[in-house]
Amino acid sequence: MTTAGFVRSGPTRRTVLFGLFAVLLVAACLRPPITAVGPLLGRIGADTGLDSTGLGVLGAVPLLCFAVVSPWIHRPAARFGSHQLILLAMGVLAAGILVRSLPGAGWLWLGTVAIGAGIAVGNVLLPAIVKRDHADRLTTVTGMFSSVTTGAAGLGSGLAVPLAVATGDWRTALAVWAILPCAAAGVWFLRGRVVPGEPADAPLAAAAGPGRSMWRSGVAWQVTVFMGLQSTTFYLMVTWLPSIEASLGVDAATAGWHSFAYQVVGIVAGLGATVLMGNRADLSMLAVIGGAILVVAIAGILLAPELVLLWAIVAGVSSGAMFVLAMALFGLRTRTVAQTAQLSGMAQCVGYLLAMCGPIAAGAIFDVTGTWTPVLILIAACAVGQSLSGGFAGRDRHTHDAPTG
C-alpha cells in the first residue's frame, strides 16, 4: 500500500474519492448524538427529575467512555483491521442512540454509554486512517474531516429543539440521529468492496514502534493536555451555552440556533486553520492565538451579554480552529501510522478524562451558586491553559525524538 493512496496498486480517482467520502460520513456521526442533548437538557431534566449536577453527569458520560475505550482501540484494530472495527462502531452507535430514546432512566444511561463507546472508536481511528491514506496531504484532509465533524455537531444543536417541537417528544428528537450512523455503516461496508485490499490487510499495527512507550514522551503529554483542554472548553460550551443563554432571557429555540452558529462558524475557522497550517512545522503561535480568542469571547459574555450571539460566534472561531489543530497534531507529532494510533488513543484517554470533569463541575457550581458567572470564568481559565499547552505542543518535535522524563 502506498502512503497516500487507498489501495495497494492502481487506485483510481473514483476509489480515492469514495474512500474519502466514507471517512467524512463517519466523521459526521461523531458529534450530533452528543451536541443534540444540550438544547434539550431542560426537557430531559423536567421529564427525568435530574438536577443540573445530574444533567452534567449525563453530558460527561460519553467523555468517560471515550477515556476508557480509547487506549484499547489500537489492539483490536491491529488484529481485525480498522475497516471492520469502524463498521462495528457505527452499528453500536446507532443502537445506542435508539436505546437512549426508550422510556425509562436506565435506557437513557445505557444508551449514552453505548454512544460514547461507538464514537470513541471513530475518534481514535480516523486520524490514523488519514495519516495512513493521505500522508502527503495530512493537514488538508484532517481539516476536511474536522470541519465535517464540527458542522454535523452544529446541526445536532440547531435541530434539537425544532425536532422536539415537531415530534412533541425529546426522545424522538434524539432518536432521529440513528439514521446517520446507519447510512455511514452502509457506505463504509461498500468502501470495503470499492477499495480492494484495505479492510483486513491494512491494519494500524499494535505497537508504537521501537523505543520507549508513548506514555513516557514529553511531546505526547503536551499534545494530550492541549487536546484535553480543547475538548473541555468545547463540551462546556455545547452542554451549557443554551442554559447560560436561558439565564439571559434567550428562548430555548434561539439558544439552540446560537449553539448551532457557534459550531458552524467552527467549520470556516477549521478550514482557515488548515490553510494557515499549510506545511508549517511550528504551530505554536496558532495554538496560543486560538486560546486567546476564546478568552475574549468569554469576557464578552460577562461584560456585554446582550451581544451573546456575537460572542458565541467568536468562541466558535477558536473552537473550530483548535479542534483541527488538535486532530492534526496526532499525525504531525508522530513518524509512523502506529505511533499516530497510539498517540490518538493516549491523548483521547487522558484528554477526555479531563474534559468530562467540565460539564459535571459546571453543573455542580451552578447548583451551589445559582449563577453561571463562575462557570464562564472556568471556561476562560481552561482557554488560558489551552494556549499555554498548545504553545508547547505546537513546536516542531516528534514524540519519539523527545527526551524521557
From TrEMBL:
The chain crosses the membrane at residues 53-73, 85-102, 108-130, 142-164, 170-190, 219-240, 260-278, 285-303, 309-332, 344-366, 372-393. It holds the Pfam family MFS_1. Keywords: Membrane, Transmembrane, Transmembrane helix. The keyword 4Fe-4S does not apply. Gene3D superfamilies: MFS general substrate transporter like domains. This is MFS transporter. It comes from Rhodococcus zopfii.
